[in-house]
Hints:
Layout: H1 2-6, E1 12-15, E2 18-28, E3 35-42, E4 48-53, E5 57-61, E6 66-69
Amino acid sequence: DGYWLRHCHGFRVDIPRGRLGFVEDVLYGAEHDRPSALAVRGGLFGRRLELVPVEDVDTVDPRRKRVALVPSAGDKF
């Protein structure tokens, strides 16, 4: 999961009630080898940018190019 979390650019991001958007960038904080957040572009015409903490990621499915967030994360968006 760590490898794919670092390499999930362009993956679709889903919350329990549907699609949040697509990973535009993987952001790093103090730990240079571990992502701290995903920049997710969504909304009408891709105008919305959400920063999703990696703690909110439930699964990364590289075969389907999907990132699923934990159910409680859906309440934030």
